[in-house]
Design brief:
The complex is a heterodimer of chains A (113) and B (112).
Chain A: E1 3-7, E2 10-14, E3 19-26, E4 30-38, E5 45-50, E6 56-59, E7 62-66, E8 70-75, E9 84-93, E10 99-103, E11 107-112
Chain B: E1 5-7, E2 10-13, E3 19-24, E4 31-37, E5 44-50, E6 53-56, E7 65-69, E8 75-79, E9 88-95, E10 102-103, E11 107-111
Parallel strand pairs in B: 2-11
Antiparallel strand pairs in B: 1-3, 3-8, 4-5, 4-9, 5-6, 7-8, 9-10, 9-11
The chains are: A mainly beta (113), B mainly beta (112).
Chain lengths: 113, 112
């Protein structure tokens, strides 16, 4: 069964304290891995797409990496405005034109000043 | 450029009533998806349109849910009759080809 697991469920950091979030997956037909950020009361906001093992992408204080079984979202010197729920999702192929996202439960990040 | 827009943002209905959710995708996006998050669970796929055609509706819970996409533009998701377990946040997303999906703000549905 296709599955995406994120850890930890919640993470509290002090401002400037770097850390990493994990997303492990067991899926067939992987088309890509996505990271989203979600603020309370809003929809997921796209951050990154990773397509192949070894790929890395960066945006401001965030860096996403991908291996064959997991992805990491590294947060360097976080600020309070980085507080949000971070969602990992794998994009599965369901046919010639089909595709869907399988989400993990998310990591709720809180950064204190 | 306008993003994905969903209406209403909140809806409270009684068990047995009908509710219709609407999604306006980003202009030009052929792919439109519906997802749902129930309390304490992860976001789950409901169905996928390519233009006006249903490409995959494997995630639809049961036949009380009906999704349509008129002319390949906006989409509606009707729940009839609503049950308590239908409560949750319903998200719509759209994408170009197989690129990243952009999500709307969601409709919070509460069935009492």
């Amino acid at each position: 069964e296709d599955q995406v697991t994120q850890s930890p469920e919640a993470l509290r950091l002090q401002e400037g304290e770097s850390s990493s979030l994990n997303c492990s997956y067991t899926v067939s037909g992987l088309r890509g891995l996505f990271w989203y950020r979600q603020d309370p009361g809003k929809g997921p906001e796209f951050l990154f797409t990773l397509y192949s093992a070894g790929e890395e992408k960066e945006k401001e204080r965030l860096k996403a990496t991908l291996t064959k079984k997991e992805s990491f979202l590294h947060i360097t010197a976080p600020k309070p405005e980085d507080s949000a729920t971070y969602l990992c999702a794998v994009h599965l192929s369901t046919g010639p034109q089909g595709g869907k996202l399988i989400f993990g439960q998310g990591t709720e990040l809180s950064v204190k000043p | 450029e306008a993003g994905v827009t969903q209406f209403p943002s909140h809806s409270v209905i009684e068990k047995g009533q009908t509710v219709t959710l609407r999604c306006d995708p980003i202009s030009g996006h052929d792919n439109l998806y519906w997802y749902r998050r129930v309390m304490g669970k992860e976001i789950k796929f409901l169905l996928h349109f390519v233009k006006e055609s249903k490409q995959d509706e494997s995630g639809m819970p049961n036949n009380r849910f009906l999704a349509e996409r008129t002319g390949g533009t906006y989409s509606t998701l009707k729940v009839q009759p609503a049950e308590l377990e239908d409560s949750g946040v319903y998200f719509c997303a759209s994408s170009l080809h197989y690129a990243e999906a952009f999500f709307g703000q969601g409709t919070r549905l509460t069935v009492v």
